[in-house]
Amino acid sequence: MLHIKNLTAGYGKVNVLHGISFDVNERECVALIGANGAGKTTTLRCICGLNEVRSGSIEFLGERLDGLSGHAIVRRGITMCPEGRQVFAEMSVVENLEMGAHTRNDKEQKSDVEKMLDLFPVLRQRAKQRAGTLSGGEQEMLAIARALMARPKLCIFDEPSLGLAPKIVEEVEQILVRIKAMGTTIVLVEQNAAMALRLADRAYVLEAGEVVLQGTGQELKNDPQVSKAYLGY
Ligand SMILES: Nc1ncnc2c1ncn2[C@@H]1O[C@H](COP(=O)(O)OP(=O)(O)O)[C@@H](O)[C@H]1O
Ligand SMILES: [Mg+2]
Prior knowledge:
There is one protein chain. This protein is an alpha/beta fold. The protein has one domain (2-231): Rossmann fold, CATH 3.40.50. Helix content is 37%, strand content 26%. The chain contains ten helices and ten strands. It has helices spanning 40-47, 70-75, 93-100, 109-119, 121-125, 136-148, 166-181, 193-199, 217-221, 224-231, and strands at residues 2-11, 14-24, 29-33, 55-60, 63-64, 78-81, 154-158, 185-189, 202-207, 210-216. α3 (93-100) packs parallel to α6 (136-148). Bound molecules: adenosine-5'-diphosphate and magnesium ion. Magnesium ion (MG) binds at residues 40-41, 83, 158-159.
């Protein structure tokens, strides 16, 4: 479904991705794990058209994405739940959800807002509240729901568990399980490698802008290098 080949990208004079290649098949959950600064967010932003692709290619459902605008990429079925949630703080919960659907032109946005409020009961309680007044966990749920409002074929999550209490992290994990069961393909970036490898069908390990290891979630969980570096045992 998603085919990334020899991707390089960077900031100013510096390249931070040095030829990354990976694939995501339909209905798979693929995790990217790696230390802070490895280039995970940059990779995701390239897929979404938010960072310039310097060389290499990104193909989605047989079509080149590199060079398209972020807007055009959302229309093709890719959305991101960004690092740090980035909800629209001054807008209400429902308005944030509506924003998630702004590239759609069907008539089912309203019923989809209702579906999201069913899926995330905590958001229903806060429907009219400004998003900036929500707790970190509630904002994460909102960012996830907003990403789903575009009805993505591929949904990308950048560190959804970052900074959340353990109980909320568990909730986020259960939601990702449900999103996958709904048939949505997932790319998941997590520093919480244990969680990422539980959820992922396959995973890639990024180090300093390169893919250094890949395998099934289970294989990587059992890999001595991975468990020492990322799982803490
Ligand atoms: N806006 C930016 N300007 C300059 N350098 C950046 C910017 N964003 C990220 N970087 C650098 O690019 C590298 C990769 O960052 P990033 O993709 O955010 O890594 P990760 O998400 O794996 O922590 C890091 O060295 C980081 O300092
Ligand atoms: Mg990051």
